[in-house]
Amino acid sequence: MWEVVTKYLLRKRMNSERKYDLLIKNVQVVRPNSTLIETSDIAIKNGKFKQIAPAIDASESIEVYEGANKLAFPGLVDAHMHTGIYNPLDQDAIVESKAAAMGGVTSSLNYIRTGGYYLNKGGPYREFMPEVFSLSEGNFFVDYAYHIAPMDNTHIEEIPALIDEFGITSFKIFMFYGGHGLHGASSSQHEFLMIDEDEKYDIAHFEFVMRGVQRAIDKYPEKQEDISLSLHCETAEIMAAYTKLVQQENKLEGLSAYSASRPPHSEGLAIFIASYLANETNLPNINLLHLSSKKAIDAALQMQQVFPHINFRREVTIGHLMLDIDVSTGNLAKVNPPIRPREDVEYLWESLLDNKIDWVCSDHACCKHEDKVDIENPGDIWLAKSGFGGTEYLMSALVSEGSKRGLSFNKMAELTSYNPARRYGLRNKGDIDIGLDADLVLVDPKETWTIDSEKSESGQGYTPFEGQELNSRVTTTFLRGTRIYDNHEIIGQPSGQYLKRPY
To answer: H/E element holding 355?
Structure first.
């Protein structure tokens, strides 16, 4: 007995005297804002990067992990997710954050709002968010944060408190909600949004949200770089009119019909409106979300020229990069904005390669098969709910397809980690550097595999990416120095922490 205790105490003492908790040997370190990829070891202590250098003595670490010459990227910051939109938040947090870890994601930034879906509640955020935090705590396998959408005047007044008390520094406007529901035309705006009859969710409201965010910046000038407003840019009136036209003409079906019903110029017009209002309200930080088309990209670039003093950021999703209207999975790929024709997809890639896009995300929303396919009318695109998951393929797909097109690994690290981390106030994320959180993803750039939804950790049960062949794969994910995904399996229990920003 005493021999066992003595050995335990000696081992504990030896461990306490070692410089590192974990040493990852022999990896190709991919850092953003660099052109180099260096063979190195990575030493971690207390959840932080401690040393990055070749040939670190393995005896100085409690644990040693062989990296086998794989690419080591900063853990992904998936800047656009919708955990809990269609399923109970506490359940979605567990299952969909497993999918995130599978994809190399270590920080999940989730859009959430009052109204239909999510918690299906209205009212002030000071009552809403504590419930969100309660349902989230202890359920995420990755670190997490929330973006908030101010839906009424009360929410606008709450913006400073959301920043100060809850550490939420990013806000959102869904521009199409003025005349559309989540999936199509809606005449019951107040019911869907759960706002009072005297409230309007329209262009005037968008302006007042911007003014509210700007007042918050004035109140917290030290957080100016971290406070931003994101916009889903589609114009409700254009969409409503074109949806009617497409349905009446009845010449198109599936994704082609849905793309035509929400035409690209609807995106462009919304971008013009949003940009002008940002200038009018002196709002400096604007994020244009999930740009899906040439017209949307061109509009965003035009507005950057017209208003050079506004710090615009432009986002695309892996879905819009990897899918087009002819994808074999059809209606399962319904999303807002729509999946577009191939020529738009190619333009997104051109823009990415030309440094006109700031980050790539998933827009992950677990929408189960029964919500996508109506039993009585399985081919009816208008009855399918919008959105699908994909965070589990974000890194593998970008490395696979991006490599073919000449996108550098260092640029990929910027697009998936560094840029969104810096924009959204995650100062300790997004890079492999001493003192930062030891979030890391290992990628085998030569593993060929075929996407199979049955092997996904997501609860969705299908994927619009089904059958696509990739030639790169995430093999291991570390969250703050702890393996959470390895050898195709989730490891351990949920250990994700809420990221109060600035973080």
So the answer is: none
pLDDT band at 409 (very low <50, low <70, confident <90, very high): very high
The string of pLDDT tens digits covering residues 112-149 is 999 999 999 999 999 999 999 999 999 999 999 999 99
Beta strands 228-232 and 285-288, pairing class: parallel
Cβ-Cβ contacts under 8 Å for 120 (sequence gap 6 or more) = none
Nearest CA to 479 out of 76, 92, 30 is that of 76
230 - beta bridge partners?
Answer: 172, 287
**For residue 426, how many other CB atoms are within 10 A of its CB?**
27
Per-position b or e across 260-269, b if 16+ CB within 10 A of its CB: bbbbbebbbb
Q: Spell out the domain ranges in the chain.
A: 75-432+446-473
Alpha helices in 74-202 (DSSP H): 89-102, 125-136, 153-166, 189-193
Distance (Å, rounded) from C-alpha 11 to C-alpha 3?
Answer: 12
End-to-end CA distance of the chain: 47
243 SS3 class:
helix
Architecture of domain 75-432+446-473: Alpha-Beta Barrel (3.20)
CA angle 347, 352, 356 (to 5 degrees): 100
Phi, psi for 126 (deg, rounded to 5): -65, -20
Residue 324's H or E segment, with its range, is none
Q: For residue 229, give the nearest of 282, 291, 164, 306 by alpha carbon.
A: 282
- pTM of the entire predicted model: 0.95
Cα–Cα distance for residue pair 62/15, rounded to 1 Å: 6
192 pLDDT band, cuts 50/70/90, is confident
Structure tokens at 428: 């300790």
